[in-house]
C-alpha cells in the first residue's frame, strides 16, 4: 500500500502513529506565571543532543481556553521552563488520567493524586516518584506546518534519578520498565534489553 497524506489513507484509522513506534512519553510538568501547575503527557518527545543535554516535545492540538495551543506550551511561553518526568509502567493509569481535557485551572497533580516535589534549578513542580526527571530551560519554540503544531526545545539544567533505578553505576530501565506510546490507543512497556557494539568497538 502507498498513500500521499494529502490524499488520505482510506483506512479506518490514521496509521502514522503506528508506523513511528515505539515513542517515549514526555510527561511534561509546567507552571504558569500565575503559579498554577500543569502536568500532561506528550508522545512526540525525545532527547536531541548530548552536550549540552537537550530534549524536545511537540504539542499538536488546542484547547478552547488556550487559543492556539494547550496548557503546557502556554505556560512555557510565560515562564521559559518545564520538567520532563519519565513514565514507568506502574504509573500508566495516573499518567493517562492526567491527559484529560481539563480546564486550565485544574491541577493535574491533584486531579490524579500525584505526589509533587519542587525542582532544584527551575521554578516548577516535578513528579516526585518518577524514575527520573529532567529540569529544562526553554531554548526555542518552533511553529511547524499546521495550525497547532509547536515543537518545544529545552536545555536540561538538572537531572533527578530515583535511587532504586541506579544499578552498578548505571541507570537501569528494567528497574522501572518505561512506558512507550504506540499507535491508536496502544502502549508498550520495556521489559527486555540487549546490547549491540558498534563496528570497531
UniProtKB/TrEMBL annotation:
<protein>
    <submittedName>
        <fullName>Flavin reductase family protein</fullName>
    </submittedName>
</protein>
<dbReference type="Pfam" id="PF01613">
    <property type="entry name" value="Flavin_Reduct"/>
</dbReference>
<feature type="domain" description="Flavin reductase like">
    <location>
        <begin position="18"/>
        <end position="173"/>
    </location>
</feature>
<dbReference type="InterPro" id="IPR002563">
    <property type="entry name" value="Flavin_Rdtase-like_dom"/>
</dbReference>
Amino acid at each position: 500500500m502507498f498513500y500521499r497524506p494529502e490524499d488520505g489513507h482510506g483506512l479506518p484509522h490514521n496509521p502514522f502513529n503506528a508506523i513511528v513506534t515505539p515513542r517515549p512519553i514526555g510527561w511534561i510538568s509546567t507552571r504558569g506565571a500565575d503559579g498554577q501547575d500543569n502536568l500532561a503527557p506528550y508522545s512526540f518527545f525525545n532527547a536531541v543532543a548530548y552536550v549540552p543535554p537537550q530534549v524536545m516535545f511537540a504539542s499538536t492540538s488546542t484547547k478552547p481556553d488556550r487559543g492556539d495551543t494547550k496548557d503546557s506550551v502556554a505556560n512555557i511561553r510565560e515562564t521559559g521552563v518545564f520538567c520532563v518526568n519519565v513514565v514507568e509502567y506502574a504509573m500508566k493509569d495516573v499518567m493517562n488520567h492526567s491527559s484529560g481535557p481539563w480546564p486550565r485551572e485544574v491541577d493535574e497533580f491533584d486531579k490524579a493524586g500525584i505526589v509533587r516535589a519542587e525542582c532544584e534549578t527551575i521554578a516548577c513542580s516535578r513528579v516526585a516518584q518518577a524514575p527520573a526527571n529532567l529540569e529544562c530551560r526553554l531554548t526555542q519554540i518552533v511553529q511547524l506546518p499546521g495550525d497547532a503544531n509547536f515543537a518545544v526545545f529545552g536545555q536540561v539544567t538538572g537531572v533527578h534519578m530515583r535511587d532504586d533505578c541506579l544499578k552498578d553505576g548505571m541507570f537501569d530501565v528494567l528497574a522501572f520498565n518505561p512506558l512507550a506510546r504506540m499507535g491508536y490507543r496502544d502502549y508498550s512497556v520495556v521489559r527486555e534489553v540487549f546490547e549491540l557494539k558498534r563496528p570497531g568497538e
